UniProtKB/TrEMBL annotation:
InterPro entries: ArsR-like_HTH, HTH_ArsR_DNA-bd_dom, Methyltransf_11, SAM-dependent_MTases_sf, WH-like_DNA-bd_sf, WH_DNA-bd_sf. Residues 88-107 are annotated as: Disordered. Pfam families: HTH_5, Methyltransf_11. Residues 91-107 have a biased composition (Basic and acidic residues). This is Metalloregulator ArsR/SmtB family transcription factor.
Amino acid sequence: MSGLGKLVNVLKAAGEDTRLRLLALLADGDHSVKDLTEILDQSQPRVSRHLKLLADAGLVQRHAEGAWAYYRLAPEGQGADLARWLTSRVDPNDPDRRRDRARQEEARAEQQALAADYFAKVADSWDLLKTLHVPEAAVEAAVLEELGGRRVDLLIDLGTGTGRMLEVLAPAYDRGIGLDSSREMLAVARSRLAAGSIAHAQVRLGDIASLDPAIGPADVVVIHQVLHYFDDPGRMLAQARRLLKPGGEILIVDFAPHDLEFLRTEHAHRRLGLSREQMKDWAASAGLDVLSMREFPSDTKDRGLTVCLWHLGDRSRTD
Ligand SMILES: C[S@@+](CC[C@H](N)C(=O)[O-])C[C@H]1O[C@@H](n2cnc3c(N)ncnc32)[C@H](O)[C@@H]1O
């Protein structure tokens, strides 16, 4: 097909009400088909058909993950340019757009409520639970190592949970702040910090999906085993970057892609691990570079998970 013919196909794919609404939703981050179906209040086969047309035209990308599929705007190419141009021109006050945005927020709030219920239940046993399938000691040592023996001014731990990262990294910062939305997890974190006499760290209740940059600027942000609770880790990364000083760094620990669907159904996970390519794209969109990535295969033979440690740097760094 000629270049002109291809472009006409892309324009045809984008030139329809529901598909334009889908593009506008995806401009705000990755979404599962399940969520898009609920937000648009249309049948799943219908939404899937629209998404397939958008994907065939190169406007969006599909990522299959276990029983779910996620969609995002295409990161590059003619379709990507057009999708970005079009979505930047959608009237934010259009009634359909306003309703879609309100439902998108509701869907996110529901997911967060599910995660909060889960963590309220497991807070007391979390430290034991998390060691089950993960090479924890090696990962913790590596996180500390990434900071290369430096002591930074401010370190912020997003989704601090029981505060373990604040404890492990205590020698590496002058001031530490841990944020979490679970009162139950924070209660455990406060006892941990008190027991370890770690007076230079404090934990606060807060939603890390809508961060107030005023709590920064931080030299280092840590996101340890948190991103897989979010449908759109890229959106979370963009938020985290807003907390950084120019040249600041983000340390992320999370699972490599896996197929353990029960982690979704029984343990509130949303994403079945994060791939190298996804992290590279999300980081680039947030204005961050991947400085290094290390993998830690499971030390148990059954149902083991590989853990990855990413070190990201703010692109405005001067070195
Ligand atoms: C798997 S735990 C990890 C805790 C800790 N970083 C660790 O590795 O031990 C995930 C944590 O993220 C927190 N979390 C999930 N969604 C959050 C949100 N929107 N805002 C703040 N914390 C959130 C949960 O409450 C939970 O404590």
